[in-house]
Amino acid sequence: MSENIVELKNVTKRFPGVVALSNMQLTIKPGEIHGLIGENGAGKSTLIKVLTGVHQPDEGEIYVEDQLCTFKDPNESKAKGIACVYQELNIEKLLSVTDNVFINNWIKKGILLDYDKMHKRAAEIMEDLGQEVDVHKAAGTYGMGIQQMIEIAKAVLLDAKVIIMDEPTSSLGEKEVAQLMRTCRELKERGIGILFVSHKLEELFELCDRVTVMRDGEYIATKDISEWDNDSLIAAMVGRTLDDQFPKEFGEKGDCFLKVKDLVIGGVLDHVSFEAYGGQILGLAGLVGAGRTETVRAIFGADPIDGGSIEVKGKEIKIKSPEQAIDAGIALLTEDRKGQGLVLAQPIRTNLVLSSLKKHSSGALLDEKKIEESGSKNMTDLRIKAPSLDEITGQLSGGNQQKVVIGKWVNSDADIYIFDEPTRGIDVGAKVEVYNVMNRLVKAGKCVIMVSSEMPEVLGMSDRVVVMRGGKVMAEIERDSKHFNQEDIMKAAWGGSLDE
Amino acid sequence: MSDKKNLNEEVKNAAIEEAEGKALKKSKGGFQMGTVLALVLMCVILSILNHNFYNITNIMSVLKQTAFNAFLATGMLLCLITAGIDLSVGANAIFCACIMGAMKQAGMTSGLVMLVVAVLLGTAVGCTNGLLLTKLHLPHPFVSTLGMKNVLWGLALVVTNSQMVSAFPESVQWLGKKTIVAGFPISFLVIIVVYVIMHIFLSRTALGRSIYCVGGNKEATRLSGINTDRVLLFCYSLSGFMAALAGILSVGRSGICNGANAVQPYDTDAIAACIIGGASFMGGKGTMVGTMLGCLIIAVLRNGFTLLSVDSAVQNVVLGLVIILSVFMDVVREEREAKRRRLAAAKK
């Protein structure tokens, strides 16, 4: 057996006006979990597309088991045993698990599909991957974790030698991530090589044998995991040392800006109560599905509530729509930036004023001069990198899109800023800029509520943490409390109690 | 220090890209140039094929035809921008005309009352379409407005006992009949005023901007504090209002109202005008200028057919194909746009 299943030598890929990959090196050994990390736009996607035959390299060679290969299309790469589980899963939700596993690869009896055989085989493969599922049921009845396993099952069925996983944990909950890691280790035992692309350093350290870092389309380094640490990985990735991933600054604790009392949504929220103060960041921690997003959406009037009250600056108000919430001085940055935060087809200038159209009007007409002024200010203040205010928002990178959403809410001039997963899917540099915006807000006496599933972020940025589980508040922890640490917060998130 | 340098570089790059952005914008306007060219080309070909085309009377009759469709297309455009559709505009127009006919049959003599009732009822129908969409949460206005079209067709016949009605008061016929100098129809003058107002409304007011945003991403717009239900209700109500005006115009133009006309393909003409003018079924796009061009193209096409005495059945076939072609153009345009953006993004 050759030493490497896949070897990339000096691969270069150019697009009109840009070098997306330059002299890229990569080797994947059999039975190895190989981490790949880089900031957004570092060229990871291009690398994956070259490996899977979507793009053809302009220069350099790809070897599969020491054999020089050129892939004209994805089928040729698949035939050589390279499979990919994309971030956006290709699951037909209404079709059965079996159909999804065998799609385009049917077992037939004559001209008819042999479902007896396929169901049996699909069940076997899923069981091997540690999943007890009814393969007759529609794939959509199962969660993201199992849908991802179906994608992996497809790869296993094709006898893949290498499985590329592109940000596989980004939409999974804690338990599902643990299961995925177990599966990865099992695949590794069978001699399959895995290219594990992830933003999350902890996952790389837990799972990978070697990690390759790329930056600006270039190969930076490949090292055994034992030779990397947090700081060196980040430094290699961003090309500079970030002294502090979380540049926390403290504001002055002010009055109680928001008081939530016994918030109830049948089956979702169970008497949620907490307070948030001006000049502080309140972290809302918990596992995926703990009811944090539901809580903030209810406060913002995005979803109807069944009971409970909300006080803003000591005055009880009824909020039935986002319109009323904004009038009351509340802003909500949603977790789903593209689906709920932006009108992607509209230019930046429109998105920036979407929640403050009245403020940007004079008389009946929109005041384009005012929009231009505040827009330019947003661009410099938030360091939005775009050619002009007229740029279509959908064309920006994730980090810049997020800054546009933040700009929209800064312009609405709220008192209470709720940020739901504000740094999800954006690169390290942009994350720090988002944190700095939060710092500025609390220093100006505003109240910030941050929902986050990233424990280091919760600990790094919060002045106080409210931990939720199953739609209930489990604990409230001050920054100077002895419980303000990862273990205790996780304990509360899993339903344990914290002794005083 | 190095940060500052970076920023300077960024600013410089931004300036270069802004210039490029302006160039791109020009090419966007280039599409509308294409539509203008198509219109001019059609006129040239028609005037060569038939000498009567450049007759002043004929030109004025084209404008009269344009005006009817232009009213319907105004409401249609707003609905299309919100990623919806209003298939009941044509039937609504005829229904409004027939309501006035029914009042005439019942012995009503006041033209003003007829006009007011027609406008109120037409707007109420549009408002109902909007309520079906926003309050009952029917899946897509395609189905509900298609249903409304049939309801209105039936009602138009019921209220007039399936009779044609004629001899309306002058005030009712004013919009469709009256001309200023050289036979220039007052209806087209009204349309120009309406289109100018609507252009300013769509491009310069908060509600206008909100309409595009609802079409682009309804949920994001709602979560930005814009009452999206109210925006939709406005668009469909306005569509009903414009349909009523079109109905009044039709009475003046033909002198009669005929409930059987409710199934004429007026809606498809309006859709075609919007799509030819740059609107998209995906929503979020479309302009009044483009829609006006679309209306003119359709009117010239229909007029040309008549002049060349093409059989009306064949006319329907060709216009049907034009509509399919314009939808296809919409798809091609989307793909081109996406490609252009990809290339522009790759350049960065």
**Low-pLDDT runs of chain A:** none
Q: For the terminal residues of chain B, how far apart are their CA atoms?
A: 24 Å
Apparent shape of chain B: globular
Largest interface: A-B, 46 and 38 residues
**What is the domain total for the residues of chain A?**
2
CATH class of the largest domain in chain A: Alpha Beta
Strand content of chain A is 25-35%
Reading side by side through the largest sheet of chain B, how are the strands ordered? 1-2
Biggest pleated-sheet summary of chain A: 6 strands, mixed
The low-pLDDT segments of chain B are 1-30
Tally of extended strands of chain A? Answer: 24
Multimeric state:
heterodimer
| Arithmetic mean pLDDT of chain A | 89
> Which structural class fits the helix and strand makeup of chain A?
alpha/beta
* Content-based structural category of chain B: mainly alpha
Lateral strand order in the biggest sheet of chain A: 6-9-10-3-11-12
Mean pLDDT of chain B: 87
Level of helix content of chain B? over 70%
State which percent range the strand residues of chain B make up. under 5%
Secondary-structure element pattern of chain B, one letter each: HHHHHEHHHHHEHHH
Largest sheet of chain B: 2 strands, antiparallel
Short description:
Chain A has 500 residues and is an alpha/beta fold. Chain A is built from 17 helices and 24 strands. Chain B has helices at 2-49, 56-81, 89-105, 111-134, 141-159, 170-177, 186-204, 206-216, 218-222, 228-254, 266-276, 288-307, 312-347; strands at 165-166, 256-257.
